[in-house]
Every structure is written in C-alpha cells, then in structure tokens.
Amino acid sequence: MALIVLFVFKTPLRKLVIMGLDRLKRGRGPIVVKTIAGTVFVLMVATVYNVVAIQRRWIQETAEVNPTDQVLVAKHLLEVSLMGFSLFLFLMIDRLHYYIRELRVRRKSMEAVKKQNRVFDDSKSPAPEEIKVLEDEMSKQRGRISRLETQLEEKTKEVSSAEANAVALKKQSEGFLLEYDRLLEENQSLRSQLQSLDRKFSFSEGKKVM
C-alpha cells in the first residue's frame, strides 16, 4: 500500500522506487518474482482447498464442531486473505510501474519531437539578411530572364527572315533551273538546225562540183 501511495503522488521517493523496480525487472528478477507469485498462488489454492475440506467434514458430521477446526479455518481464511491481497497489490504495483514508465517514455519522445520541430522551424525561417540576398538574386535572375527573352525574340525574327530568304532563293533557283532547261532546249534545237544547214550546204556544194 505504501508503494502504491508513492506511485500515485509525484515525490522524489517515487523516482527511487521506479529505479529500484527497473533494476529488479532486469536480468533474472522477473523470473524470480514470477516464481514467488506462482508459489504464493499455489499455496492460496491449497489453503482454500483445506478450508473447503474442513467445511465439507462439518456438513457430513452431525456432531458438534471441533474448536481446533474452527481455529484452523480462521487461520486458513486469514492466510488466504493475506495471500490474495498480496497478489492483488503485487499486480497493482506492477501495472502502475508499467504505466508510469510508459508515460515517461512518451513524454520524452514528445519533448524530443517538439525540440525537433523547433529546430526545424528555426532553420526554416531565414534571417532578414538572407531574405535581402535572396531578393537581390531574384531581381538579377529576372533581369537575365528578360534579356534572354529579348534575345530569343531577336533570334526568332532572324530565323523567320532567314527562312523567308531561303524560300525566295529556292523559288529563284527553281526559276533559274527552268530557264536553264529552256535555254538548253533552244541550244539543242539551234544545233540541230545548224547541222541540217551544214548538210544542205555540203550537199549543194557537191552538186556544183559535179
């Protein structure tokens, strides 16, 4: 009961009790405690069995109750009460210790999370000097973007004019090719006419000689 009271109220003694129970639950401590608790439970069951056996004997016998049996029953009942109450208190102490330890672990984890969030918030919020530097950098980048956009427009105009010139040159070359083909055909026709004239002239000269 004193341990339970120490668990309920937050005092420096509670820390010492929790530390002692932590050390008790390390190593072979839990096995020893469970063995003792099992032994006490077996003794309690045996004592209850003895009380029940004595009461059955009283029911079966019609004679007066033996004072010795009365003393034994009272003794066994006290032992059963003591052992049961001890096991109950042991269970309460174990559960209280477990919940207090879990509560401490969760509080520590929550404090660690809060510290991490604070550090993250501090690192996330930049200083005024950093904001000024970032604004200057943004203005510089915007100026470069505007210059690049104007250069891009100029290059686009040059490319469009070059494409128009290329189309005009292509059409002009096609016209030149057509004119060349026409002149070539005329040249061939003129050559054929000259060849026919030469033949006629040679033929007429041959007749004069004869």
From TrEMBL:
For this protein, the parts annotated as crossing the membrane are 31-52, 80-100
Q: In this entry, which stretches build a coiled coil?
A: 131-200
**How the protein sits in the membrane?**
Multi-pass membrane protein
Subcellular location(s) of the protein: Endoplasmic reticulum membrane
Q: Name one Pfam family in it.
A: Bap31_Bap29_C
Q: Which GO terms describe its biological process?
A: endoplasmic reticulum to Golgi vesicle-mediated transport; intracellular protein transport; protein localization to endoplasmic reticulum exit site
**Keyword Protein transport in annotation:** yes
Query: Domain Bap31/Bap29 cytoplasmic coiled-coil: where?
Result: 145-191
Q: What UniProt keywords apply to this chain's record, in alphabetical order? A: Apoptosis, Coiled coil, Endoplasmic reticulum, ER-Golgi transport, Membrane, Protein transport, Transmembrane, Transmembrane helix, Transport
Q: What is its main location?
A: endoplasmic reticulum
GO cellular-component term (any): endoplasmic reticulum membrane
**Cited function:** May play a role in anterograde transport of membrane proteins from the endoplasmic reticulum to the Golgi.
The UniProt entry's sequence similarity note says: Belongs to the BCAP29/BCAP31 family.
This one is known as Endoplasmic reticulum transmembrane protein
Give the source species: Perilla frutescens var. hirtella (Perilla citriodora)
Instruction: Print the organism lineage.
Output: Eukaryota, Viridiplantae, Streptophyta, Embryophyta, Tracheophyta
